[in-house]
Amino acid sequence: MAEKKETPQAEEAAQTETAQEPKKAAAPKQDPKEFLTNFDWDKYEEGIERIEDTKLEEFEKLVAENFVDTADEKVVTGVVTHLTEREAIIDINAKSEGVISLNEFRYNPDLKLGDEVEVLIDIREDKTGQ
User: Is residue 106 within 8 Å of 90, Cβ to Cβ?
Assistant: First the structure.
């Protein structure tokens, strides 16, 4: 069997690698009161950055302007997004679309995509989206 011979260079390299282990840097000292004042609890608890109040207010304003209450028996304005031979698909801006028979639009035989129409919410979708 062959004997394993190590060269002096390999031994020196192994010794220098262990001798040059990086030292852990000490964490900078911070005032506990300042730390608690500036600590981001939302990021710690939820894993997300805190949103500025002005952006939240702007978002709430947009929601209030565009929110559509989809209560049954309510009339809302929608936009025709698709037409088939028998039905019109109406976007009522509530994460929902309505399906209405074209017979309901007898008064408007020239109905086309993009037209705004008033619709009555008769039945809302169930858990399965139907």
Answer: no
Q: Which helix (H) or strand (E) holds 17?
A: helix 8-19
Per-residue model confidence as pLDDT tens digits over 14-44: 555 555 555 665 566 777 777 778 777 777 7
Helix (H, G, I), strand (E, B) or coil at 65: helix
Query: What CA–CA distance (Å, rounded) separates 123 from 115?
Result: 22
Q: Is the pTM of this model over 0.85?
A: no
Question: What was the pLDDT predicted at 80?
Answer: 95
| For the chain, domain boundaries | 31-67, 74-121
Backbone angles phi, psi at 4, to 5 degrees: -85, 120
How many angstroms separate the CA atoms of 120 and 90, rounded? 11
Q: Note the CATH number of domain 74-121.
A: 2.40.50.140
Q: Are 118 and 105 in contact (CB under 8 A)?
A: no
